[in-house]
Automatic annotation (TrEMBL):
UniProt protein name: F-box protein At5g07610
InterPro entries recorded: At3g26010-like, F-box-assoc_dom_typ1, F-box-assoc_interact_dom, F-box-like_dom_sf, F-box_dom
First and last residue of the signal peptide: none
A family per Pfam: FBA_1
Domain of life of the organism encoding this protein: Eukaryota
Gene: LOC107417656
CDD domains: F-box_AtFBW1-like
C-alpha cells in the first residue's frame, strides 16, 4: 500500500505564492496584453490597485511597445456632447473593442472636447468660451482614468490668453507627462511665455523669459516628437521647436517651397507616427497627388518620404476631388487625411497606411 505524502498546514500552492507576492505578480502581469489586462482589474482589489499604479503602467509599456490599430473619429458635427467611433486600420478588424464612444468620464456642465492626443493619453478641455474658466483633463481611455489640470493661477491673475496647449508624454522614458502651454505675455503684445505643467509635481511653472515668436507661428497645433514640442508657421517658413527636458528653443528647417513659392496650404497634416514627424501639404486645385515629408532627427532638412497618387481612387469616387469654399472663405477639399500610420517594429518598416475620410464612402463596405 502506497503511503500518502505528509500534509503541511502552512504549505502554499504555487498560485497562493504568486497571489501574495506583489513583485512576482507584477512581473507576470506586465507580460499580459492591454485588453485582457484591463479585465484582470476586476479579479480583486489587490490586482486593481497594482495595475492602476503609475510604476506598473510604465513597466507594462516597456514590455509592449506602442502599435497602431486605428483612430477615434468624431461622428457628431457639433461640439456639444460629441460622439466617437473607433475606425480600425484593417477592414476585417472588429471595432467592438472601442473603449469609449462619448466623453462621459467626468461630468462637466459645459461639455468636453478633445484638444489633442499623445501616446495613448487625451488632453481634453471643457467648452467654456473663456480659457481661464475652463477645466482641463488628461484622460487615459484604456484605463478610464483621468486627472484634472487646473490652469495656472498666476497667469490667470494677469488675464493673459492661452495660445496653445501641447501634451508631452513618452511612456518609454517616464510614467509622467507634461503639458506645454504658450501664453501671451504681460510684457507686451509681441511677447509670449512658456509655462509647463508636470504630472509628477501637479503644478505649473514658467519656463525661461518671455520671447518674441515669428508673426505667423501657430501654437494651437503643437506636435510632441523626439522629446520636443514642434510648431509650424502658417507659410512653412523657419519654424520652432521646444525641448521639454532642456527647456530651450530650437529651429526647424523651412518646408520645401512649392512651384509658386511659399504660401499657405489649402490643407495641412502635421503629425507624429512611429517615431517619425510628417507633414502633408496640398496647395493646388487637384489634390489627388501629393508628397509626404519627413523631418530628419538631426533637424537638418525635410525630405520626401512617400509620393501618394490617389487618382485610381478619384476615378472611382470623383466627388473626393471636388473643392469648395468653406464658411471662412477658404478653399477646401472633399476628402481629409485623418492619419498616417507607420510601425517600424513590423516586417515592412518603410511601408505606411494612410487613413482618409471621404464622405461618399460612408455607406460603402471596405
Amino acid at each position: 500500500m502506497l503511503s500518502q505524502p505528509p500534509k503541511y498546514p502552512n504549505a502554499f500552492s504555487a498560485a497562493e505564492i504568486i497571489a501574495t507576492n506583489e513583485d512576482l505578480l507584477a512581473e507576470i502581469l506586465t507580460r499580459v496584453p492591454v485588453r485582457p489586462l484591463l479585465r484582470f482589474k476586476c479579479v480583486c482589489k489587490l490586482w486593481r490597485s497594482l495595475i492602476s499604479t503609475t510604476q506598473f503602467s510604465h513597466s507594462h509599456t516597456l514590455h509592449h511597445p506602442a502599435s497602431f490599430s486605428g483612430i477615434f473619429v468624431r461622428t457628431t458635427p457639433g461640439l456639444a456632447d460629441p460622439h466617437f467611433q473607433f475606425v480600425p486600420f484593417l477592414c476585417n478588424e472588429n471595432p467592438s473593442g472601442s473603449p469609449f464612444d462619448s466623453l462621459n468620464f467626468v461630468h462637466d456642465p459645459a461639455g468636453i472636447k478633445i484638444l489633442q492626443s499623445c501616446n495613448g493619453l487625451l488632453l481634453c478641455s471643457s467648452l467654456r468660451k473663456i480659457y481661464k474658466n475652463r477645466n482641463f483633463y488628461v484622460y487615459n481611455p484604456s484605463t478610464n482614468q483621468f486627472s484634472v489640470v487646473t490652469p495656472s493661477a498666476a497667469a490667470n491673475a494677469k488675464s493673459t490668453p492661452i495660445l496653445g496647449l501641447t501634451l508631452a508624454f513618452d511612456p518609454s522614458k517616464s510614467p509622467y507627462y507634461k503639458i506645454v502651454c504658450v501664453r501671451s505675455s504681460a510684457v507686451s503684445v509681441l511677447h509670449d511665455q512658456i509655462e509647463i505643467y508636470s504630472s509628477e509635481t501637479r503644478s505649473w511653472r514658467s519656463s525661461g523669459s518671455p520671447f518674441i515668436p515669428p508673426f505667423d507661428m501657430v501654437f494651437d497645433d503643437g506636435v510632441f516628437w523626439n522629446g520636443s514640442v514642434h510648431w509650424l508657421r502658417s507659410m512653412g517658413l523657419l519654424s520652432l521647436y521646444f525641448d521639454v527636458e532642456r527647456e530651450v528653443f530650437g529651429k526647424m528647417p523651412c518646408l520645401p517651397a512649392t512651384e509658386g513659392g511659399w504660401s499657405s496650404p489649402k490643407f495641412r497634416y502635421f503629425r507624429e507616427s512611429g517615431g517619425h514627424l510628417h507633414v502633408i501639404e496640398i496647395h493646388g486645385q487637384c489634390p489627388s497627388q501629393f508628397k509626404v515629408l519627413e523631418l530628419k532627427k538631426d533637424y537638418s532638412e525635410w525630405f520626401v518620404k512617400y509620393k501618394v497618387d490617389l487618382q485610381a481612387l478619384v476615378d472611382q469616387y470623383p466627388e473626393m476631388n471636388l473643392n469648395y469654399f468653406d464658411h471662412f472663405g477658404s478653399l477646401s477639399y472633399a476628402f481629409v487625411v485623418l492619419f498616417l500610420a507607420r510601425d517600424d517594429d513590423g516586417k515592412n518598416k518603410d511601408e505606411a497606411s494612410l487613413l482618409l475620410h471621404i464622405p461618399v464612402l460612408k455607406n460603402k463596405p471596405c
